[in-house]
Each structure stands twice: as C-alpha cells, then as structure tokens.
Amino acid sequence: MLTPLHRGRRPRSSVRLSLAAGTTALCLFIAGAAHAGTTPSPEEAAAAAESSWPGLVTDVFDDRPMQDGTGVIALEAPARATDPAIVPVKLTLDPAKKIRKVTLVIDENPSPVAATFTIGADAGLTELETRVRVNAYTDIHAVAEAEDGTLYMVKRFVKAAGGCAAPAAKDAVAAAKSLGQMRLKRFAAEAEAEGERQVAQLMIRHPNNSGLQKDQVTLLYIPAHFITDLSVEAGGREIFTMSGGISISEDPNFRFDYAGKGEETFHAKATDTEGSVFEKDFPAGSS
C-alpha cells in the first residue's frame, strides 16, 4: 500500500524513462542553440522537452480513453504565475454531466497529481477553486469523471518555476502554533430557478511542506508534512472530499459553491501525513 507521501507519484521506471527522454531532447536542443550562438528561452526549452502527459495517462488513469472536456469542465489558471508557490486554479463543471470526480494534474511537478476531488451526489457543486505549487513550465490537466464513468479532459499551460521548493511564508514555530486551525466564510447566495446556490470558502492553517523546501537557517531539507485527506459536509450532506499531495499550497484554501439555503452546519475534517486529525463544526452564522 502506498504511503501518503507517494500518492500521485509515477512509478520509478516511468519517471526514469520520462526524465531520460526529456533530458536527451532538451540537451540536443540546447546544444543546437549554443552552436548557433543563442540561449534558449524558458518557453523554448519547455517546448523542446518531451511531454510527461502520455506516461501520466498510463500511470494515473490506466490508459482509459478521454474525451475533449470543452463545455463539460473549464480550467482557469494564469498564463504566467505571479508566485509559483500559490498559483490560483478554478474548476467549473457542467451540472448536466453529473461529474463525480475531478483529478488535477500538474504534469512537470515532482508529484504530478495535485489532488483528486470527489463530489457529493447531491452537493450541487459546480465551481471549485484552490491554490497550487508549480515547479516548472508545465501543462496543468483537469480530468473529470462523469457518473457513467466517461472521462473528460482539459488543459492549461502555466509559466512558473520553483514553486515546490519555494521557502514557506511562515517560520516553523509560527506554523506549529496555528497548525490545523480552520475558518469558513460564507458569501451571499445566488438566486436560481430551482432554488439558491451558496458559496463558501474553507481555509486551513497548515504548512503543507513539500519535502523539497530548505530551512533558511540550517539549509537542511524540511521533511514533507502535508494534508492528505479532507472532507467537507453541509447539513449532513457530503459536499466534496479531497485526496491531496505536495502540490497543494501552504495554508490550503478552497472556495466552492453548493446547493442549499445557507442555514446548514458545516463540518470539515482534515488528516495529514503525520496522522494528525483536525475537525471543526461551523454552525450557521459562525466562521
């Protein structure tokens, strides 16, 4: 059984082959550019490297066929990230397709599967936003699985580098003091023909250390320590669950919509790689 640290990782043989092929192509490209007296731009270097996506389709999705997800799922992310450690992404789902699961894959990250979100059957969730780390110029893929098992895929190319190794925003002492604290914000309801659509935002204090960051004083690597599982309920209904990895940013943050009246009590539960469990109830009117 895989430990939480290995969730979303490619098998070693696949990683070695992918890296070898990509490195060879990149070296040949750089050598050619050097011979011509030019230095390749990051965009050109990224284009020359072999895509990791075909191997990920095999390793993560068992080579299942995928349909073009245009109109079924939309993926929004900045073309060039301001901060590679906190890149905002937004998923929008077509409710008519009854999407039950979405896997977010950052192709060139050390652990490509950022998160898998499972959506409650009667949650009415159509939008979900979070923040991720991006370690290199890469495609980000979102793969949605419908109730009938059909997979729909969309992608977005993002220019960013170093997000998985970027220093934490807070020092370890400050992070430990607030570890696991949760807040929930509720926003004004949007009226719909069939009722009301509520919007909420869950924020969790957690360093979500990737294992690739260094202590800025000792220069030693900080051990990986991140949230692996999250569940969110409203009024006893499952809104969504998440299985996450090192690509989710420090202090995980999730904004989402759901069908309801806004009077529901929320319950959030998170578990991290050290086995710590954080839970909190949010009655209507609380945060």
UniProtKB/TrEMBL annotation:
Alphabetical keyword list: Signal
Write down what this protein is called.
Quinoprotein dehydrogenase-associated SoxYZ-like carrier
In its UniProt entry, the species of origin is given as Aureimonas glaciei
Pfam families tied to this protein:
SoxY, SoxZ
Residue ranges occupied by any Sulphur oxidation protein SoxZ domain in the UniProt entry = 190-281
For whether the record's keyword set contains Signal, the answer is yes
* UniProt cross-references to InterPro entries, sorted A to Z: Fuse-rel_SoxYZ (IPR030831), Ig-like_fold (IPR013783), Ig_E-set (IPR014756), SoxY (IPR032711), SoxY_sf (IPR038162), SoxZ_dom (IPR014880)
**Record domain Ig-like SoxY: where:** 59-164
Task: State the signal peptide span.
Answer: 1-36
Highest rank taxon of the organism? Bacteria
Keyword Signal present in the record's keywords: the answer is yes
